[in-house]
Amino acid sequence: MAALFGAGRGTKGTPCSALHWLAAAALLAAFTAQAVRPAAAQPPLNDAIVAPLDVATLFKLPERTSTVVIGNPLIADISIQAGGAVGVVTAKGYGVTNVVVMDHNGVVLMEKPLVVTSQPGRVVFVYRGPSRATYACDPDCSARVNLGDDPDVFDKVLAETVSRTTQALSAGASTSAPH
Asked: Which bin fits 96, alpha (ψ -120 to 50), beta or left (φ > 0)?
């Protein structure tokens, strides 16, 4: 291939013909087209199930659903509701994976991409150098746990959230106990 482009000369010192240049251009175009061609087996993203992080997302399952598989369980999880007609996606991390639904014979009834996004709404990201903190601002701003935040900020907000939840569960248990 280098000989075709080398200083206007062919491989034996003869001038390159227009045919050589045309062949080289066609070969280069073929390689480029192959490199950018999307994988044929993947469903289009416009048919995706979109699940914002921290929000339960429902989707309808096909009839005869027996098995539901998540491509990457670090990105999302799915639970099947009684009756098997509805799936509930719980997003666990940002990214794209897929959902495959099969019947009891292993026949694929549905395959869709599953895209985990950030939660819509009034979220503010505050950057201090490489460190990031996330705030939910509706109507006032409060720190919230968000994947990708600085570990010190994330751990502090998570500890506060767990403490608050534990206190609420304790208070609820003491008020609901029979006297």
From this structure: beta
3-state secondary structure of 167: helix
pLDDT tens per residue, range 5-51: 444 444 555 455 655 555 555 555 555 544 444 444 555 667 899 99
Cα separation, 161 vs 155, in Å, equals 10
* Cα–Cα dist 146/52, whole Å: 12
∠100-105-110 over CA atoms, to 5°?
25
**Which tokens belong to 112?**
């869709």
Q: Which of 64, 106, 70, 109 is nearest to 88 (CA)?
A: 70
Rounded distance between C-alpha atoms, residue 69 and residue 74, angstroms: 13
Q: Are the C-beta atoms of residues 96 and 80 closer than 8 Å to each other? A: no
Show Cβ contacts of residue 76 under 8 Å, excluding neighbours closer than 6 positions. Answer: 51, 70, 89, 90, 91, 92, 93, 97, 114, 116
Distance CA 49, CA 113 (A): 6
Instruction: Say which amino acid occupies 120.
Output: P
